[in-house]
Structure of D,D-heptose 1,7-bisphosphate phosphatase:
Amino acid sequence: MPIQTVFLDRDGVINVDSPDYIKCRDEFHPIPGSLAAIGRLTRGGLNIIVITNQSVINRGMVPLRELQAIHDKLHRLVAEHGGRITDIFFCPHRPDENCDCRKPKPGLIERARERYAIDLSRAVMVGDSAKDILAGKAAGCGRTVLVQTGNGPTAMRTLEEAGQRPDHIAADLAAAADWILAHGDA
Ligand SMILES: [Mg+2]
């Protein structure tokens, strides 16, 4: 069954993550090759949706309008590379709010599935953290890919402790996109 939908985590996958969070559009710096990778996935006919935890909203660190400005910048940069992001689903909650959408919970992916009638068995979740892979598996995504940018280097230990493994480990989003485009039919 060919892959149709690619769910992408944002921070540490598309852009350089920061322990101080990404608080404004000037702090949003693409990881080299990530925008071109989204362009290749788009040209490959894939539906691309960003799934991101943004507790900065309910921590009161980033106004909603600035998050929108960051995402406007992301859409613009991706378009400059021939790519298209269908939608961006974000969780605004803090961990202590115990919502159903903060990854590793599958709520954001389920919301995307409902809005766009996505066949999750034909979807892949790409992330740099264990919680991305766990959310993808909990939602029933057909594949999961862990990238080694961002939190990637420490994510495998957390996944092993949870008894889970990604289907593939890629150096970065560029390599993940190549794998998806080459192996999406397998
Ligand atoms: Mg991340």
Remarks:
- The chain has six helices and six strands.
- Residues 8 and 50 are 5 Å apart (CA to CA).
- The mean pLDDT is 97.
